[in-house]
Structures are given as structure tokens and as C-alpha cells.
Amino acid sequence: xxxxxxxxxxxxxxxxxxxxxxxxxxxxxxxxxxxxxxxxxxxxxxxxxxxxxxxxxxxxxxxxxxxxxxxxxxxxxxxxxxxxxxxxxxxxxxxxxxxxxxxxxxxxxxxxxxxxxxxxxxxxxxxxxxxxxxxxxxxxxxxxxxxxxxxxxxxxxxxxxxxxxxxxxxxxxxxxxxxxxxxxxxxxxxxxxxxxxxxxxxxxxxxxxxxxxxx
Length: 215
Fold this sequence. Notes:
The chain is mainly alpha-helical. The chain contains six helices and no strands. The chain has two domains: 18-103, no CATH class; 106-215, no CATH class. Helices cover 69% and strands 0% of the residues. The longest helix has 38 residues, at 163-200. The chain starts with 23 loop residues before the first helix and ends in a 15-residue tail after the last helix. 34% of the residues are buried.
């Protein structure tokens, strides 16, 4: 897979080491996903912002750790490939909703970011006609996710009048602006890749074999 995310008809499918469900990397991914409702409750319930940010930090660490262990122990799995990007999206969405409900960020920003994921979801039926279920991750998608995962914890910590809060707010919004731009840029590349696949590959009547998640 090229780092630019370009894809041709000869693109190979992903390699998996195992179809097992109960591996340590998968358990870490499941635990990370289970932390999403806890995060939303912390933000909307007791407004325990510092603890909510700690949850996000732990989630980010386990995101790195499960990928590292999966590669190191040859435990890459189909489930793991699915859970990682899903967990990232749910953490971003939960943080967005929490911040919007508390009027820390505007709802139009939530709509812009959610709309991008809706557009990507609408590409799936088209991709499946060419034997794909989703698109290759490339560096723009990863960079966008990185920016957004850092942006909103900082914006959350910036909900105050102290010097630290002001600095966190400025830095958080900088990450948010860059992350939103990159998120849609990556989305446009996925649209172009889908168009290329439709033009270059014949229609297939089988279950998708190429299962890669676009971030």
C-alpha cells in the first residue's frame, strides 16, 4: 500500500495473521470501545473534564499498544482491523456531542465532521460492487484523526478563564481547524479512489475480500 493512499486494480487485499477474536490486541480494542460511554458521561454528567481527558489519553495509548502487540505477536485480525477505526470515530463523536451540548463548540462543526463520515459510508455500496468494503488508510486520514483526537481534549480543558485554559483553547482550536480540513481532504481522496475503482475494475458478484478501513 502506498502512503499516498493511491489504489489500482492490482491492489492486494490486507494480510491477516489470525481470525481469532480473543487476542490481547482485540481485548484492548474492546476495552477502548467500552470507554466511550464513560467518556460521554464524564463530560455531560459531573463535568469531570480532567478525568475525561485522562480517559482519552488511556484510549490513545491502548490504540497504539494494541496495534504494536498485534504486529509484534503476529495477531493481526479482521476484527482488530474493524475495531480500531470504529473506536477512533466513536471517541471523536462522543467528544463532539459532549462539547456541543455544553456549548463549548458550535453544532455546525459537529455537522461538518459527521457529514464527512456519512459521505464515506455512502461509498461502501459502490465499493462492494468492485469487491471492496472500504478504502486504504493513508497518511492524510491518519493525520486528520491524530489532529482531531488531540484537538477536542484541549478544547475541553480550555473551558475556563485561567492562563492554562486559554493556552489549551488556542492550541485545541488550531488542531481542530487543521484536523477538520485534513479530514475532508482525505474524504475527497477516498471519493476519487472510489471513482477510479469503478472505472478500472469490473463489477463482481461476490462478498468483498478487500477489507481495509478508511480513517
